[in-house]
Amino acid sequence: MFTYWLLLAFLLFCLGDIFSFYEMQKTFWCCSGLFLLFEIVCLCKKYNKEYLFCGLCCFLVLAGGFMTGTAKLETQKRWQKLFGKQIILQGAVEPDSIRKTEQGIGALLAAEYPLHGKVRIFVKTDPKNADLTMRKLRSGRIGLTGVLKEPVFLRNPGTYDGYLFNKIKGIHGNLTVSPAQLHELGEPLPLRFRFTALAQKVRENALVQLHISAGAILPGMVLGGYQGVGPEEADVFRDNGIAHLLAVSGTHVAVLAMILQALVRPAGKKGIIFIQLFLALYALLCGLQPAVLRAVVMACVLLWGRSRKLKADSLRLLLLTGWVLLLANPFWLFDISFQLSFVTTAGLMLAGSKVTAYIPQNLPDWLRTVLGVTLTAQVFSFPFSVFYFHRVSLIGLVSNLLLLPALELAVLLFLSGLCFLFLTSVGGMLCGLLFPFAGDIQPGSGIFAVVVSFPFSVAERLLQGAVAAGKLLAGLPFAAVDVAGWYKVQYFCYLGFMASFFDLGPFSRLSSRQRKRWLGVLFCSFLLINAARYLLPQDLTVHFIDVGQGDAALVRTPAGKNILIDTGGLQGEADISRMVLLPYLRYLGVKQIDALYLSHGDHDHAGGAAGVAARLPVKNVFLGAGAEKSADVQALLKVVEHKANVYRLQKGEQWNVGDCRIVVASASSGTSSAAATETNASSLVLQLFCRGHSLIFTGDADMETEENAMRLLRTADVMKVSHHGSETSSSPHFLDHIKPHFAIISCGKHNRYGHPAQDTLERLAACNIIPLRTDELGAIKVVFGKNNLHWYSYRYHENQF
């Protein structure tokens, strides 16, 4: 009974935390009113005092969660008041956050003045001064002077939510400075950051010993994180269902604790204390991540209890550990590592033995245990994979059996190599002191090199084999499948199905026949809701994707066809297809692109085309004049060679895609006074007609190109404004001709070009056209009904996506 009350209290605390995180003050006060009403009823009816006490305790726990989260929000609001102001920051840089680029050095500053919190800083410096700046950032506490800016992120469904991430991690702004605005305060790093710096040094020294591109996986498995891990290797781990290995979890801590127990068993209680101290040190080296803290706290408590021959209730310990962590940081509740760690651990405690019981008895016990643990973890983490990644591995069971032993052995050898590296370094120093006549003895020479390199070399071979096998498995048909975002009711159906199947919670009181009925009802409900997405009639829907300073739009026709018009592009090495387009398409359940149109070859319109085509089938590619000169288009053509039909469009052509007709109103720069090399003037101008509705896409066309296309254009409901709202687009004559109700402007927030131009906005207003901007609204969804249309903003109407 105590466990049930503890679970109820924990859930109420989490509910209060949720109310504060999403700023649902009205909902909290409504719940408070219900508790007050309950107390009044109990007093009037003269119920047992236990009811009064329980109601009061429940309210206090709910209020505790709400107030704890609200305190963090108050700090965030105080930081927001500093946006746009010149401030002086003082604090220390997190050593593992430092990243060097061609333009300068970025890092995360743990500020202590004027407020406590984290700020992303960027020091603009040239390559000559980069090392000096790096030393300053790592030296200790520093001071910076600059203008604090609001963080800017893209807003799209199914993709990385930077605003949510910053809120969880307590990151409150951005600060860009020059080296002259950075100065050292002469104080050392805080103790926690010294451990992080040590871990970073270990990672860097280890990478020197590893000679393969995938070598960064080994430090990642030991210390956590994707630092240095290539996107292809990361995809291999995800598609094989073993991505948890790159985020230090309970598996790592359990293996480490068992090895240490075997080594220090003769030491008795002193050995237990040593293990606890070692695990605490390991948590510090891993950066005090919630999943690591959960595993370390539970392991230390269990070891302490075992040393005193006490038996702990694992579920109670898990709940208390979670409560302690949330008191330390209430917003960890929304961290994916916290969620997966606690949910999978709870699943193993509650249903692990039941899952193992379904595995054939004639298999060896160790194999049944491994299969049971793997299956249980996958079943309980499945909805999280759908919610966060929209991609699920179907070969996780096989991959864990085949790849996990090799990877764990590689990690053990890697750790052995690190120990040898440390010992040989110390040995070299001692030899230098005892035998000065022998000169400098380096750990990288002679017998030292052989001893150090052997475990690293074997670990590399094992890692290479595991990655190669992982690629082979991931390449199998249906190894990993994309899953469209679920409706909220589907998550409840899945939760109820699991509880009924494993006889958990209130379902444990039902008879076998009743549980079977519930299983049938929940399973059928889930399937019907999912089938409705594809079987019910669909309206013409257009998604204007928020790709920053670029263009990308997805047209979903009533006939089920998918038309992608432009693919955006980000500066630097950022891949817009991996960061935005593919997650967005997976979220919507898009399985293939029936037609891909590129208005022209500029990177901000074609940068993600090759990435999309490499991971999603594309049937037809349509290009305008001169587009093939672009490196991005060349990369696309290389990917789709022998896989897709490629067409070079001409002005006046008409193409049917399902039940939609697309008219090419302009396809070359021949009619424009601009030079032939001017890619904007050669942009495609397209008009899409479908069931009485019409949209116009103008790429980056200038006014002259737009007006030359008017002969083939008709009035439209919606127009995508050319060139991100530049002053060179959308002349009054052109706007008066097509008479759109809405004008979509796709541009980046606070972009350096000043888009959209004020003149363009005034021209739209003069024609009574409503502008909808992705920099203000995020992704924009336009739904065309029979006689009307509705638009939704992901920033303000998230539930409509």
Report on the structure:
The chain is an alpha/beta fold and 801 residues long. Among the domains are: 2-80; 86-189, OB fold (Dihydrolipoamide Acetyltransferase, E2P) (Beta Barrel), CATH 2.40.50; 486-535; 540-800, Ribonuclease Z/Hydroxyacylglutathione hydrolase-like (Metallo-beta-lactamase, Chain A), CATH 3.60.15. Helices cover 51% and strands 15% of the residues. The protein has 26 helices and 24 strands. Strands 15-14-13-12-11-10-23-24 form an eight-stranded mixed sheet. A seven-stranded mixed sheet has the order 16-17-18-19-20-21-22. Strands 1-3-4-6-5 form a five-stranded mixed β-barrel. β19 (693-697), α23 and β20 (718-720) form a beta-alpha-beta unit. The model is unreliable at 437-444 and 670-677 (pLDDT under 50).
